[in-house]
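Lay summary

Proteins are chains of building blocks that fold into shapes. Our project writes down both the chain and a compact code for its shape. Here are two examples, one after the other.
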Amino acid sequence: MRESPNYISGFERVVAAFGYWPSFHDSPVLTFTRTSEFVELQVEAWEMTSEVDSRGYFVLTKRHEIGFRFAGISFAELDDFIPENILFELGFSPVADFQSTGQFQVDLDSAMGGDLCGRFTATSGEITFIRPSPIEKNPEASA
């Protein structure tokens, strides 16, 4: 089981919605904003089941849109990251790293190619919202 980044305020809301901290595999990036003061990111996440629907698509459950806001950005490699990205994974530093340094790294690992990845270091983060995704907006994985 993946370690929850408990240094992100509101992380419990994500764990409550999924039952665990997700990897955000195949999550589309819905919005991405970078300023000199913060990075905001909105993604869509779900759990893919082993069930297949009548059209041959895997059934997706626990569909949610999740907003993140990070501040205290001290390092960023985001020049090639594009907002219309699909994530292979949204990675966070281990809790022990944050406890020893007071900062954490966020890795935006793109499923669209290694040159579209990004990363940054922050001192604070929060879940700004988590809400059920509209059914018509959700992607489906083919069988």
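And here is the second example, written the same way.
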Amino acid sequence: MLTYTIRRLVLSVPTLLFISLAIFLLLELAPGDPMAQVPLTVPPEVKEKMREALGLGEPIPVRYYKWLVQFFWVEPQVLIDHLFDTKLAWHFAPVPADMSATLLNTLTEKGLIKETSAGLEMLVKDQRVISWQTRSPVMDIVVQRLPQTIWVVGTAYIVGILIALPIGIYSAYRQYSIFDQSGTFITMIGFSVPPFFTGPLLIVIFAVHLGWLPSVYDTIHVVTDWESFKFQFRQMILPVMVLALQTTAQISRYMRASMLDNLNQDYVRTARAKGLSEAVVVMVHVLRNSMIPVVTVIALGMPAIFGGAIITEVIFKVNGIGQLLITALFANDLPMVLTLTFIFAIMIVIFNLIADVLYGVLDPRIRYE
């Protein structure tokens, strides 16, 4: 298993490089100009200097190579510097000729300037992936927005799984019962109705007409006591309901189908003939074998729920990764869009690997050579 995992991780590197190149080229071919939102009063020569500052005047291969170095080399070093207070993402560069004497003395006292054979050099930070829209490091913005997305999406996915598994198990055990038929009807609705419809519908019902829940997610809200926790719980209900609906519909159908397939197997009849209780037969023997394909679906569905969260975050004004991606698309912020979409691609590759490993763990008949 360890050998297989290492081999898959090694093979994922060229896969991710190809994906990043494809995303980069697609964004390059997309219409739009990052200078389109600059006021018309800005002179053309100033716009041209701004374009050069953003690196738009460089050839496409050079820009792609710089992004690769920044994403795979500089950003991990920045993370290590933040965690262990090191200086990996820093290097010495010549001191600008127009630097004032006061600033030069200040930096020298702090140990940021040293004298070499080439002259005075100052310690500067390596160039990171910079957002064209905010002029700040992309990963810093992602780290700021990520907790909100994980909080909402993670809760929705857990809730969806906890609801879907019992529904799928009981529906299969009581096949064609009223519960099974009702569950099938509800899951078909969950499959067919998209989040951009269920979101506004729930807002109209529970926020506008009934007034029970807030329609806008307060991102800056901080939980400090019981009252603030209750407000946080109330404002999470609607977006979690929207995301959990599709998760419940998908996983419960897979759980039902897998349980039905195993309930008719010979080993189940043998277990019953030995006198084992029905609870042991269903919840121990049948459930474990039935969970093999379901766990794969759960692992592969994690990146998909992040995709669904993009629409949900926009509807409920959740200041997370989804809303950040939409804002970057409208602003033609190429570094931001490229980085976010590539992070989603990394998640897909990682969760595919997790699904394969879990499949082998649950099914002892599978051996990875």
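What can we say about the second shape? Residues 67 and 129 are 7 Å apart (CA to CA).
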